Amino acid sequence: MSERSPILVLLTADGVEPPPDLDAIREIADVRTATADTLPDTIPGADALLVWDIFSSALADAWSAADSLRWVHVAAAGVDAVLFDDLRRSDVLVTNARGVFDGPIAEYVLACVLAHDKLLHETEEFRRRGQWAHRETLRVAGRRVLVVGTGGIGRATARLLRAVGLEVRGAGRTAREDDPDFGTVIDSAHLAAHLADVDHLVMAAPLTDATRGLLDAAALAALPDSAHVINVGRGALIDQAALTAEITEGRLSAHLDVLVSEPLPDGDPLWTLPGAHVSPHMSGDVVGWRRTLSRQFLDNLRSYAQGVEPGPAVDKRRGYVPGTA
Amino acid sequence: MSERSPILVLLTADGVEPPPDLDAIREIADVRTATADTLPDTIPGADALLVWDIFSSALADAWSAADSLRWVHVAAAGVDAVLFDDLRRSDVLVTNARGVFDGPIAEYVLACVLAHDKLLHETEEFRRRGQWAHRETLRVAGRRVLVVGTGGIGRATARLLRAVGLEVRGAGRTAREDDPDFGTVIDSAHLAAHLADVDHLVMAAPLTDATRGLLDAAALAALPDSAHVINVGRGALIDQAALTAEITEGRLSAHLDVLVSEPLPDGDPLWTLPGAHVSPHMSGDVVGWRRTLSRQFLDNLRSYAQGVEPGPAVDKRRGYVPGTA
């Protein structure tokens, strides 16, 4: 790589705070700031792109102008919004915010598991109505969990849930029996065959061609009555209409931090169904998260400026960092 | 003890389901059923009393008629409602539901900790208003907890919170540095001096003369802004009026499963304050809890009928089983 300062484009959006380490980034790189609209005019000659507005798919539209691009860093765990076929076929390196969200999202999943089994939301409903209504809760230890997605987030989730006494299995690309975090991993291509005894189903997979719609109507129907679905991956992992129907019937309930369309559109039944607990894509965003993302990028940028390839690289065909999902 | 079947009085109340093992209990003992009203007429000649209506203080009123009583079993962790001076001074053995609630209440406390730090209740409020409002949550690992009460429930709570990564200390009768579950235990008589760095304060002590009003206005004032109080012990451990004032100001928040007066009276501000999450004394009551209590008593009764003293005994002067608080 060259000895001059790399030219970096910071892809952001109106109202998004810049990386806290922007001054340090400017010491290493010649920084140009762009939004989706200005990216085609900003990216010519740039070596690197920091996708700070993580929901942006602007690079696809600016691709023909990206004449010098060698590296794209996505400040998110999931890179699905950024990937497209020309980028996949190119030599451009893609990295992501690997590891940053593992612990925070694992804690969030545990919060959802406990809120469900200890009836916290229902108790708040009774409180709002001024009703003193004793009910029996569930013992969490021994409850059965299937975590779909055996990457860093899924693994941290499995370890935390096991520490609390739940029985956890995983679902991934390859079935196996000796996984250090999951023990048993079932083949996610045959998900529906493994759902009959699941109390909590945690969706923590990357969104790829292989996982889109993985939890379809047939798989949902294979879940037992009163099963609880938690989605901290991507909305499109689930057939949202089919899940909405199951929640409407009262057969399933869910905590959904990600949705097919975000923000959830006004009037969507998931806003008001008693068994649907939607949250605004915040499960991993603990106080200080933007600084952590910023520092991770800065470390990668320092490597890049010194001629060392940042990593680990996203496998652009698979859509995630191999060995982590 | 005698070879005849013991005479057992089952103290219950209208609407309370009898012990699931009542048939097995009847095989061992001559069972008479009483309510608070009928206890004085029922207890003469009885060897043992099972306090199945755990909120009853009926024995105090029936004491002069308890001419043969040798053993009282309270189907609850806390025996505060049952103890009175004449019983304390007598030779009557008192046992309790030791251990039954430890794991379930520890899980409930963890649920409250996570609901607070992950903003679950606020997120539900935004959902009810149809608002998509991204906010930053707190990393739970590393948060600082003080558990007041080093009995079985406090210990199970400490172990579970530590397993999730929180930093936990205890408060008990004797300060020490080498407790296996807590590490540091501070002297609860000087509680206020140890609250300045507490994120979550868990009240899990028995209610005794030494703990009544332990979390008073001065101690509450010593908690830092945004601290979170969880009470799974007894309502009277806390100056409820002073806590209500702190929550009204928005300085503290709380999950309160026990209250000074239960049910919480209509119109009490704790029903509606946004930072007050009251629940109806249910933290330990997991599906099957009455059967577990029933079996524990049955085991004790079998010992008693064989002439073996049931145990461990409650220290009636202290108000709990020694070595567990």
TrEMBL record, chains A, B:
GO terms for molecular function: NAD binding; oxidoreductase activity, acting on the CH-OH group of donors, NAD or NADP as acceptor. It holds the Pfam family 2-Hacid_dh_C. Residues 111-283 form the D-isomer specific 2-hydroxyacid dehydrogenase NAD-binding domain. Keywords: NAD, Oxidoreductase. InterPro entries: D-isomer_DH_NAD-bd (IPR006140), NAD(P)-bd_dom_sf (IPR036291). It comes from the Bacteria. This is D-isomer specific 2-hydroxyacid dehydrogenase NAD-binding protein. It comes from Gordonia neofelifaecis NRRL B-59395.
